[in-house]
Design a protein that fits this description.
Layout lengths: L6 E6 L5 E5 L4 H13 E8 L5 H12 L4 E5 L2 E7 L11 E2 L4 H12 L5 E4 L10 H9 L3 E3 L8 E4 L8 E3 L5 H11 L6 E4 L7 H8 L4 E4 L2 E4 L4 E2 L2 E3 L4 H13 L4 E8 L6 H8 L3 E10 L2 E9 L20 H9 L4 E4 L12 H11 L4 E4 L2 E5 L6 E4 L4 H11 L6 E4 L11 H7 L3 E6 L2
Parallel strand pairs: 2-16, 3-14, 3-15, 6-7, 10-11, 22-23
Antiparallel strand pairs: 1-23, 1-24, 3-5, 4-5, 7-9, 8-9, 11-13, 12-13, 16-18, 17-18, 19-21, 20-21
Bound molecules: shikimate-3-phosphate.
Length: 440
């Protein structure tokens, strides 16, 4: 469903970035609002919805499962919940495109249904690991088939009632945690997930918003089966999208940006702490709540950055922001070391390899390791980057181009539309020189 080739960004270094940016809606929260709304009782009205290819993949899949969903505006969606047992078999396989969150969370939701479902996706999604998901769901009584490599396509067979389990996650993954908690809504007793490290807690917060009690006791998170009640959700601005502008505003001399309404959930917001530790000048202003999530306006002004050892404990709570953070490292004085980040190898691309190759193409010394990378800061030169069809790699190197010594060309950028439609327009509106076009 997603064209991953053809679109390229051509970025030229230039003057300061200035002005205000309206952020796209949070991707993680938009997915969850659709899914919980779908199995809730009554209507769920979502404002600030991310109109990206990933979240639209979830929306389309839920419609195929019999949920009436109205698009009332680009960012305004009405979900007419069918209740916990109201989903129906889809007529065809559910195509989830590039979206890992759609796939993992929907598999959890589908595990407790009485009908079969088949989940497919694009080449990138079809390479991503699914056994980590299947294993705990099987322990709950689910019946799920995957390819011999442990990847898509998945067939989730109708299982009826599942059994509550207590499960220690083998990796820090909010998608995995969320899938098990969603399956737990269909279990015969409580389900407990134990996290090795803290990961984003959007599912837990939203379950509470929909009237289900979620208990947290240290690393243990428990949910009881039961119904959800439709609710109004205001989606925060996506901090993962804001991260590119926190870095751009820091590295392009003279910049001063205001990013309004960014989600700053503490289980998600370590990018702010990491950039500040590097010397970034970021102010968190006007802190408030939206839809059960903390949000704030972020002001960033250009500042000299220095390399740091990124604290290992912060890695899971900044996991999507490392492409942007590594560009900050490339423009800093001194060395930045990232460890405890092996999960980056199984994202939309192998992000350690993609960043290592891209930084090297721009003349930035770096050394990739199995679970991280060491970057020697300096001044990026011009060059051509392969984004590998990964939205965050494409946006990271576009930002690098704003502060490079010569123009940067980023190939294979179409998937920026999975999380940030209008990214190039947003950069341009703030004064950046970027063109999005079709390459030869
Ligand atoms: C997400 C969890 C993270 C993150 C992804 C969104 C979520 O994935 O990388 O972009 O919404 O739960 P993992 O659970 O694989 O770490």
């Amino acid at each position: 469903m997603t064209a991953t080739t053809g679109v390229e960004f051509r970025v030229a270094p230039g003057g300061a970035l200035r002005g205000e940016l309206t952020l796209p809606g949070d991707k993680s929260v938009s997915h969850r609002a659709l899914m919980l709304g779908a199995i809730g009782q009554g209507a769920t009205e979502i404002r600030g919805f991310l109109d990206g290819e990933d979240t639209v993949a979830t929306l389309t899949a839920l419609r195929a499962l019999g949920v009436p969903i109205e698009r009332q505006g680009t960012h305004h969606v009405m979900v007419h919940g069918v209740g916990r047992h109201g989903l129906r078999a889809a007529a065809a396989a559910l195509d989830l495109g590039n979206s890992g969150t759609s796939t993992r969370l929907l598999t959890g939701l589908l595990a407790g249904q009485s009908f079969d479902a088949v989940l497919i996706g694009d080449d990138s999604l079809s390479r991503r690991p699914m056994r980590r998901l299947i294993e705990p769901l099987q322990r709950m009584g689910a019946r799920i088939d995957c390819s011999p490599a442990g990847t898509l396509p998945l067939t989730v067979h109708g299982a009826g009632t599942l059994h509550g389990i207590e499960y220690t996650l083998p990796v820090a993954s909010a998608q995995l945690k969320s899938a098990i908690l969603l399956a737990g809504l269909y279990a015969d007793g409580p389900t407990t997930v134990i996290e090795p490290e803290t990961t984003r807690d959007h599912t837990e917060r939203m379950l509470a918003h929909f009237g289900r009690t979620v208990r947290r006791d240290g690393a243990r998170i428990s949910v009881e089966p039961g119904e959800l009640h439709g609710s109004a959700i205001e989606v925060p601005g996506d901090l993962s999208s804001a991260a590119f502008f926190l870095v751009a505003g820091s590295i392009v001399p003279g910049s001063d940006l205001l990013l309004r309404g960014a989600g700053v959930n503490p289980t998600r917001a370590a990018v702010i702490d990491i950039l500040r530790a590097m010397g970034a000048r970021i102010d968190v202003l006007n802190s408030r709540q939206a839809g059960g999530e903390p949000i704030a306006d972020l002001r960033v002004r250009a500042a000299p950055l220095r390399g740091i050892d990124i604290p290992a404990a912060l890695v899971p709570i900044a996991i999507d922001e490392f492409p942007a953070i590594l560009i900050a490292a490339a423009c800093a004085t001194g060395t930045t070391r990232l460890v405890n980040a092996a999960e980056l190898r199984v994202k939309e691309s192998d992000r350690i390899a993609a960043m290592a190759d891209g930084l090297a193409a721009l003349g930035i010394g770096n050394e990739p390791q199995a679970d991280g990378i060491t970057v020697q800061g300096g001044k990026p030169g011009g060059g051509t980057i392969d984004s590998r069809g990964d939205h965050r790699i494409a946006m990271a190197f576009a930002i690098a181009g704003l502060n490079a010594a010569a123009p940067v060309r980023c190939l294979d950028c179409a998937n920026v539309n999975t999380s940030f439609p209008g990214f190039a327009d947003a950069v341009r509106a703030l004064g950046g020189s970027i063109e999005a076009g079709h390459g030869g």
